[in-house]
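REQUEST FORM: STRUCTURE PREDICTION
Request ID: SP-0412
Submitted by: Lab K.M.
Chain count: 1
Length (residues): 480
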Amino acid sequence: MNSFTNTETESRGNLRDFLNIIFKHKSKIIIIFLTVVLTVTIGTFLISPTYEAFSQILVKFGRENIYTPTATGSQVLFDISKEDRINSEVEIIKGRNLIEKVITELGVKNIYPDLKEKPFISNTFSKKIPLLEKAVLIFQQKLTVEGVTKSDIIEIKFQHKDRVVAAQVVNRLIDVYLEHHITVFKQSQNYNFFDDQVKLLEKKLKDSEEELEAFKYQNNISSLTEQKTVLLQQISEMELELAKTRSEISEKIGKIQALNKYLSEPSAKIELGQETDFNPYSVSNIRNRVAELKLREGELLSKYNEQSQLVTNVRQEIEKANQLLDKEERTYHDKAVKSINDDLNALRSKGESQKQHLSQYQQELNRIKSVEMRLNELERQAKLNEDSYQLYVQKTEESRISNAMDNQKIANISVVQPALPPIKPVKPKTMLNIILSIILGGFAGVGTAFFIEYLSHTFSTREDVEKHLGLPVVGSIPDK
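STATUS: Completed
RESULT:
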């Protein structure tokens, strides 16, 4: 209970001390408060107003963000980073060259009529700063360029004492920026390059087409596929005929060997006699006669002995018949061999002729294959030249359109809101300054009172005497 009472008593004492100090120095507090408020208020009304003109531009995704490589096989590259694109444009707008151009076109004296060619800080070692450079430094301090969050919009702000000049500066800066932007991204050199390439490729294509036509005319090419098909068919037929001829040659050689065997081996006569090709009518009759005589001989031998006159006569007739048969067979054998040899020679000549034709067909086929390979090569080259020519014609047209758009100042930048002369100044802010001066004046007055009280070494109240000296106060004399 005693602790709570002491705390309450101490709080009341502190509040009483605070109020005593306030009332003791109330005149000083009021003077300082009024001085601060009046000074700030008068200063606010005396300061020349500063106006801020602003404009907004929209940065769209356009042809400036597309990189078109000059190589035909290269890939088109796209700039898809919005943040990087916005930051790049912001840096271009804030560039010193654009600011100098704006100041030069509008005139330093028109923008800053009170600007003098003297250093900001006067001293012995300082040098005079040219008006243009000094104007650029002031311009940069008063210019604000920043991108609006989560958008493709850039906001441009400029502060100046003349609201009309502020709007003129912002609008002129945007015009200069647009011209500079087009110059930066201009692709006129690409157009000249593509145009030169088109001329070269056009000549190259014409030469390849003329070479292809001359090759076709020189080789009498109408349809290689049909020629090749007909030639393959002729080769196939000729190979079949050659195989047939070789088979016939083998057959003739076999017959000659059989005939030669007939003469050298008598036992083969019976078999040879059975061949119709070598058994003409006279030979056949003689053989029949020999066969009849041998039958007659057999009959006689069955009746008579070998010394019989009849048997002897029959045997003499058989001998004469065999001699005649041998003569006839030899005669017809020679004729048959000669005939077969003639046929064999004819077949061999025919085979050689077929071989020559087949070789010619093969050579012609090889020539056609070679011509076909060269023709395909020339056609591929002509097609490649045509594709390259068409590609560069397209790129040339795109570059020409881009160049025309550059000349017409068509870009991916649009002015969303042009700068207008501001109605209200941004500086000074009267109400804010007055409110702040009231707060500052109050704190300054109270702070000064407590500071004076802190520096004072006198006792103003009975409590101060009892607190610091530890002695009771018997009496006090009021201040008259």
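NOTES: The two ends are 42 Å apart (CA to CA).
Reviewed by: T.R.
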